[in-house]
């Protein structure tokens, strides 16, 4: 689960530039807000389009792009309408051009400089993830307080002392900070990042961080994500069991009821011929019945 503290009056992408001199962000949609749910799907479309560009695909239809992104084509067209006119009816979308427009909408055309505080197991994994660079996020600084970690090299970056975070941020001019420290240290690190001028913070601690309204904080709680998966798994199992039970019931043959003719008397039953035989009888002179 991710949580956020949006800047006031902003839904989805915030285009307000920073005024502290550290960096500025280019605004594409100053007059049109993009809903947060659409922003999330735009990121998915961007990933799919980047793969298509690498594969040499030039044109893609809305149906093909929607299927690859796992959404409906109508929802995709509505999402892309926030970017202005796109595509040609009956032809499709120019893959490279659409990718560039989404990158601009997400503020990725200028790129982002990222600093990470907390170089433990999770921090090292994040620092070494190559996907950030391919998507416009350059890791420019790593920070920690452990004497055995400060000064070491992780993913070609020397780990700096977190005590010098403010001065380092002035030097590195980051646009995004990542917090991967123990829970008890998270708020203090957040406060120092805000003091250093950061307005976008991604936290991997389950602690809810307090930050000014102008600072965007997103919290990723991996345990909660797993709990959500557990819930979905249980619900899906219930649905499968219910469908199986319904299918079994539909296969049970129904009993056909006929008209009741009432009980037969013993005399009637005795005098009735056996089923499947034809009785041909005559009466002899003594009155007995003789079967022919």
UniProtKB/TrEMBL annotation:
- Superkingdom assignment: Bacteria
Q: Which UniProt keywords apply?
A: Cytoplasm, DNA-binding, NAD, Repressor, Transcription, Transcription regulation
| Region feature Disordered, mapped onto this chain | 1-28, 245-292
Q: Provide the residue positions that the database annotates as binding NAD(+).
A: 118-123
Where does this polypeptide localize?
Cytoplasm
Which residue ranges traverse the bilayer? none
Q: Which SMART domains match?
A: CoA_binding
Q: What Pfam families does the record tag this protein with?
A: CoA_binding, Put_DNA-bind_N
**What residue ranges does this record give for the DNA-binding region?**
44-83
Q: Where is the composition biased (Polar residues)?
A: 278-292
Q: Where is the composition biased (Low complexity)?
A: 263-277
Note the InterPro entries from the entry.
CoA-bd, NAD(P)-bd_dom_sf, Rex_actinobacterial-type, Rex_DNA-bd_C_dom, Tscrpt_rep_Rex, WH-like_DNA-bd_sf, WH_DNA-bd_sf
CoA-binding domain location: 107-208
What HAMAP family has UniProt attached to this entry?
Rex
Quaternary structure and partners: Homodimer.
Function of the protein: Modulates transcription in response to changes in cellular NADH/NAD(+) redox state.
Q: Which family does it belong to?
A: Belongs to the transcriptional regulatory Rex family.
Its name, as the record gives it, is Redox-sensing transcriptional repressor Rex
Which species is the source of this protein? Antrihabitans spumae
Query: What gene is this protein translated from?
Result: rex
């Amino acid at each position: 689960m991710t949580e956020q503290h949006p800047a006031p009056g902003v839904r989805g992408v915030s285009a307000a530039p920073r005024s502290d001199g550290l960096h500025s962000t280019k605004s594409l949609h100053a007059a049109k807000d993009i809903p947060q749910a659409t922003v999330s799907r735009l990121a998915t479309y961007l990933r799919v389009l980047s793969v298509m560009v690498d594969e040499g695909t030039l044109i893609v239809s809305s149906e093909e792009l929607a299927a690859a992104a796992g959404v409906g084509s109508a929802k995709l067209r509505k999402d892309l309408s926030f970017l202005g006119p796109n595509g040609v009816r009956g032809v499709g979308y120019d893959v490279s051009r659409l990718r560039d427009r989404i990158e601009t909408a997400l503020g990725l055309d200028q790129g982002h400089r990222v600093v990470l505080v907390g170089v433990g197991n999770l921090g090292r994994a994040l620092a070494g993830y190559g996907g950030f660079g391919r998507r416009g996020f350059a890791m420019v600084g790593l920070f920690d307080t452990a004497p055995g970690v400060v000064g070491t090299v992780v993913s070609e970056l020397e780990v700096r002392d977190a005590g010098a975070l403010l001065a380092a941020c002035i030097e590195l001019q980051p646009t995004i900070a990542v917090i991967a420290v123990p829970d008890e240290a998270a708020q203090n690190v957040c406060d120092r990042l805000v003091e250093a001028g950061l307005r976008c913070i991604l936290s991997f601690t389950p602690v809810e961080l307090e930050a000014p309204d102008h600072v965007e904080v997103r919290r990723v709680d991996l345990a909660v994500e797993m709990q959500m998966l557990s819930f979905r798994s249980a619900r899906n199992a219930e649905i499968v069991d219910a469908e199986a039970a319904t299918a079994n019931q539909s296969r049970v043959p129904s009993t056909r009821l006929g008209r009741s003719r009432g009980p037969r008397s013993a005399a009637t039953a005795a005098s009735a011929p056996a089923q499947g035989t034809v009785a041909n009888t005559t009466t002899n002179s003594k009155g007995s019945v003789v079967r022919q």
